[in-house]
Amino acid sequence: MNISQQRDAARPRARGTERSMARRAELIAIGRKLFADTSYDALSMDDIARQARVAKGLIYYYFQSKRGYYLAIIQESVAELVTFAASGGELDPVDRVHRTIDSYLCYAEHNQAAYRTIVSGGVGFDTEVHSVRDGVREAIIATLAEGAYGRTDIAPLARMGLLAWVCSVEGATLDWIDRPELPRDTMRELLVKTLGGALRAIEDLAPAYRAPQPARREV
């Protein structure tokens, strides 16, 4: 199940009127602000209701539980990131990569608590949060493969090379938001250059997957 399917599945079909969907979207927008820099455990439902200025029962009505509310917030915000990364097909591949990485870093920078939850997998082994994380990874891999090779159905070795880069980005981004010593522009350029190294490594092991010209080094 991809991110969009998870988000749709979390929406209460029986309450799917235009008014109720708008109210639900409003609660998610409020929650995104509350949880942007505050961990899941740090806010109780009473805290959330008080800061959101709504009755606690209203949150339960739409999301059934605090966890359901938090997952809906994560799924909604991540879905926007994934949609943005997948768009921009009209852009030059280099510009698209820069834009995708920059939007990824922006998300992590402005949603630090949620980003940590997604990358770490939640409290314990949370299969739904892991599913969200895996969906983000696959969407980014697909975007990179489309830009580098003109298709998303790539061989296992090429996919693993891109996945290894994505996983390294997760670890580096976690450290960056904890210790923001580098400007975001510098961080983005560093990740772009390491992506070039990953693409060249893939070509070394699988010559059919030639690194695109911007990633090549003239020798």
TL;DR?
With 219 residues, the protein is mostly helical.
List keywords for this structure.
219 residues; mainly alpha; elongated
Write a structural description.
This protein starts with a helix and ends in a 14-residue tail after the last helix. It has helices at 3-10, 18-35, 45-52, 56-63, 66-86, 93-110, 112-120, 127-149, 156-178, 184-205. Helix content is 72%, strand content 0%. It has 219 residues and is mainly alpha-helical. Helix 6 packs across helix 7 (112-120), helix 8 (127-149) packs across helix 9 (156-178) and helix 9 packs antiparallel against helix 10 (184-205). The model has no long low-confidence stretch (mean pLDDT 83). The radius of gyration is 19 Å and the shape is elongated.
**How many strands, which pairing sense, and closed or not: the largest β-sheet?**
none
Please state the average pLDDT score.
Answer: 83
Counting DSSP H or I runs of 4 or more residues, the number of helices is 10
> Could you tell me the radius of gyration in angstroms?
19 Å
Strand fraction: under 5%
Q: Which blocks of ≥5 consecutive residues have pLDDT under 50?
A: none
Helical content (DSSP H or I, runs of 4+): over 70%
The H/E string reads HHHHHHHHHH
Instruction: Specify the oligomeric state.
Output: single chain
Distance between the termini: 44 Å
Shape: elongated
Number of strands: 0
Strand pairing plus helix content: what structural class? mainly alpha
